[in-house]
Each structure stands twice: as C-alpha cells, then as structure tokens.
Design a protein that fits this description.
- By secondary structure, this protein is mainly alpha-helical.
- It has 2 domains: about 35 residues; about 150 residues, Ferritin, core subunit, four-helix bundle (Ferritin, Up-down Bundle), CATH 1.20.1260.10.
- Helix 2 packs antiparallel against helix 3, helix 3 packs antiparallel against helix 4 and helix 6 runs antiparallel to helix 7.
- The chain is globular, with a radius of gyration of 26 Å.
- The chain starts with a helix and ends with a helix.
C-alpha cells in the first residue's frame, strides 16, 4: 500500500511538472509570435547598400510623418476652436493622405517595408493634444505643425540633394512646394492662435 501511494504521488508530481513545462513553452511561443521584427530590422535584412539604407529610412520617416499628420488633422477638425485651425487640420488630412498613397507605392517599387501605424511619439502627441481645451489645442496644434513642417522640409531638401535614387529624389523634389505651402498655412494658424491665447 505504501509503495502504491508513493508511486501515485510520484506520478502526480511528474504530470504536474510536465504540465507546467508545457504551459511555459506555450507562453514563450506566443511571445515570439507577438514580437514582430521592426520596420527598420526588416529593411536592414533586405538592404546591404548604405545609400539604399538611407533612402529606406527616408521612406519610413515620410510614411510616419503622413500617418501622424492624418491622425492629428482629424483631431484638429474635431477640437479646433477656430475655422483656421479646423481648415488646417482638413488640409493636412487630405494632403497627407495623398502623400501616404504615393510613398506607399514608391516604397513598394523599392522593396522597402514601411509602417502602417503612427510611431509611439505620435500617439503620445495625439493623447496630449486631445486632452487640451479648444484654445490651448489651437496653439499647441499650430505650433506642432509649424515645427514639424520646418523639420520635414529640411529632411526632404536633404533627400533632394543627397539621394542617389532618381525616383526618390524626384518624389522628394515634387513634394517640397506642397510642404512649404503647409508650413505657410500653419504659420497663419499659429499667428491667429497666439492672439487668441493671450
């Protein structure tokens, strides 16, 4: 009888250990499935030329910019207290939707993987802006659009001057006048927002 109890207890412990190991293994495989390689990592495995890597980074950044502008533009149309800011948001949404379609097609022809959602810092900016009152929102959004477009123009000008890829260089050159127009509109909204904010 004592041997039987000992045998049964040993068997139960064995099955318990097997069950725990199986559960641990399942959890690990789930984690591995969730952790997809980043866009940058995916591109790095496909590209071995430094100039092509820079072009790929540009296409990724241009995509992230458009995804963010579309999302923030929709928010501006909902929260903006003035017609100027709401119109700016509508223009950003419309114009950057066109830009997103173009950069997506261009990235496809260059075999570059691009993101499908805004980056984390864009989500953070969205959450901070959406928590603001209308007047505060107008100022913060206008300031963000001015600063963001100044940086974007510099990025596109750098690509126009330095990219060795004709298609990417031509697209960046084509986009510059529109980006400068966006900046001008954002500066108008910024001036109006500054007056209302005081």
């Amino acid at each position: 009888m004592r041997h039987y109890i000992l045998y049964r207890t040993t068997l139960q412990i064995f099955f318990a250990i097997v069950l725990i190991l199986m559960m641990f293994s399942c959890n690990n495989s789930k984690k591995e499935e969730v952790q997809q390689p980043s866009v940058t990592e995916q591109n790095e495995t496909k590209i071995d030329d430094t100039s092509k890597e820079t072009d790929a980074q540009f296409l990724v950044k241009a995509t992230e910019i458009s995804l963010e502008e579309i999302k923030l533009g929709k928010l501006a149309q909902q929260i903006g207290s003035t017609k100027t800011v709401r119109d700016l948001g509508k223009m950003m949404e419309t114009e950057h939707a066109k830009s997103l379609a173009e950069v997506t097609e261009l990235a496809k022809t260059k075999m570059v993987t691009i993101p499908t959602a805004p980056p984390f810092d864009a989500e953070d900016a969205y959450n901070k802006l959406s928590a603001k009152s209308s007047v505060d929102f107008d100022k913060a959004y206008s300031d963000m659009m001015v600063n963001g477009h100044q940086e974007t123009i510099l990025l596109f000008e750098k690509t126009c001057n330095e990219s060795q890829d004709t298609d990417i260089r031509e697209w960046a050159t084509k986009m510059l006048p529109a980006l400068k127009m966006h900046l001008a509109q954002a500066q108008v909204a910024q001036k109006e927002s500054d007056k209302n904010y005081r």
